[in-house]
Structures are given as C-alpha cells and as structure tokens.
Amino acid sequence: MAENAGPQLAGGVAQSPVSLPRNVDEARTLAKQRFKERLANGEKVGDCSCHDESADQVAFEPGAGQRVVGARFIDSGQVYFFDPGSIELETNDWIVVETSRGQEAARVVIAPHQVAASQLKGELKPIQRRLSERDIERMESLRKESAQAIRTFSAEIRARQLPMKPVTAEYNFDGSHLTLSFSAADRVDFRELARDLGQKLKCRIELRQVSAREEAKLLGGVGRCGRTLCCSTWLPMFPDISMGMAKTQELPLNPQKVSGVCGRLLC
C-alpha cells in the first residue's frame, strides 16, 4: 500500500502542508509574500481598490486623467489631496497650500497620476506654489518662535496654577495662527488663558487638549523595541486596541509589558 502523501482535499487533490513561522521576522516575510500573491491573483486586499473593477481609477500614465497630489503636513499625519495645476511636482517636494488655518507647508508623498478617483471627496484645493528658499528660511524662523511660545505658554500655566501640561506649539506658515497643545487629566476652562496669550503673542491662539497617545505622537521618542515611535514616524491614525488582542496573541497580560511609552496598550 502506498504511503499517505498528505491530507487530501475534495476531488483527491493533495493539500500542501502548512509551515508555521519560527519567529517574527519569518512571519513578516510570509505575510508580505502572501500579500503580493493575492495582488498578483487580482484579489481585493482589505479596503484596497487596486483590483476593484468598479473603482474609477486615475490612469498612471503622465498626462492622463486628473492630476492630483497627496501631501502630509507631518510625517505621521493623514494624507490630503490637492490640485497641482500646472506645477510639476515629485515625491518629497515641499509645497504651500491654503487651509482653514491659513497657509501651511506640506510635503508631497503621492505624485500626480498615482491617486485613485475613489479616494477623492469634494473639491480639491489648489497648490499655491512650490516652497522657495525664502519660505524655508521663514519656516526656520517660525520654529524658533514656537520654542519661545511654548515657554510663554508654560509660564502662564504656572502663574494661574492650572492642571495642564504644555506639549507643543506650532505656528501656521504665515505666522497668523498658533496651535498650543496640552494634556490634562480633566477638562480645563482655558478661555481666559487663550485671550491673554493672544494679546502677548500677537496672533490667533488655538488651545487643543490631546490624549496620552497623541502626546507621545507629537513629542516623539524611542519605543520598547529601540526604534523611534511608530505613531510619530509613519502611523497615520491610532487603531482600536484591547486587552483581548493581547490574549489572542498569547502575550503576557502584565500591563507594563504590553504598554507603550504613552502608558496605553501598544499599537
């Protein structure tokens, strides 16, 4: 009698044995390989519309379809889409765009003709111009002013003995709007503080309370793995994490071992 060659599927077709990964690196390699195979087979992966025939996709050839670029205001931020008009742009070029806070500088992360029409919602705002040498000098000047603004913010908090911790200060591109981020255990009435800061700093003030995870994202740092925090380098949004996920992965349920520098469960 012939030896059993392995498990059989319906119709007598042999099923190849499943080899489990021996470590994390091997698991990542297998996952990437499987992802590429599914794309090559025309399967729709997650919310990706690469192989969705119903998606009206912009052609990738230069000059075809609507010219759209994707840009980020911070490295780990959300991608926003803009109309470049006649401006020729490539990935990593810096641009000036109009936003609800006034003019802002952003970095191109998706070049023209690489955006699916299904990703676009509403009317696209035009790109004002490419960043010039003078614009770069202005950005450096505003960074120095931001450092002074955070010191002023801290002094005002101490003077009022408010239960707030200053996190960051960020001017918009033309210096007319300043966003001050802070963390606090509870809600804080900061209307009087915002008014006094506006008079001292001579600009429009926006105070924004952030969570522990957002604070870590804004300040940056080094994670348990020894690398820079995912949330401050590439993670555009925070996923929903629960202790049940740690149980599913058979991780230790000690909070100190499954928590990040923010004190929350690891993303």
Molecular structure report:
The protein is α+β, with helices and mostly antiparallel strands. Among the domains are: 69-131, no CATH class; 136-210, GMP Synthetase, Chain A, domain 3, CATH 3.30.300; 221-267, no CATH class. It has six helices and eight strands. It has helices at 24-40, 133-160, 191-201, 212-219, 230-233, 243-248, and strands at 69-72, 80-83, 94-99, 102-110, 125-130, 165-171, 177-183, 204-209. The chain has a five-stranded mixed β-barrel with strand order 1-2-5-3-4. Strand 7 (177-183), helix 3 (191-201) and strand 8 (204-209) form a beta-alpha-beta unit. The N and C termini lie far apart (53 Å).
Number of E-type strands: 8
End-to-end separation: 53 Å
- Write down the Rg: 25 Å
Largest sheet, spatial ordering of strands: 1-2-5-3-4
Using the coordinates shown, work out and report the CATH topology of the domain at 136-210. Answer: GMP Synthetase, Chain A, domain 3
Q: Indicate the overall shape.
A: flat
Uncertain segments: 1-18, 47-65
Residue fraction in strands? 15-25%
Helix tally equals 6
- Biggest β-sheet strands, sense, barrel: 5 strands, mixed, barrel
Key structural traits:
267 residues; alpha+beta; GMP Synthetase, Chain A, domain 3; 5-stranded mixed beta barrel; 3-stranded mixed β-sheet; 6 helices; 18% strand; flat; disordered N terminus
Layout: helices, strands, pairs:
Elements: H1 24-40, E1 69-72, E2 80-83, E3 94-99, E4 102-110, E5 125-130, H2 133-160, E6 165-171, E7 177-183, H3 191-201, E8 204-209, H4 212-219, H5 230-233, H6 243-248
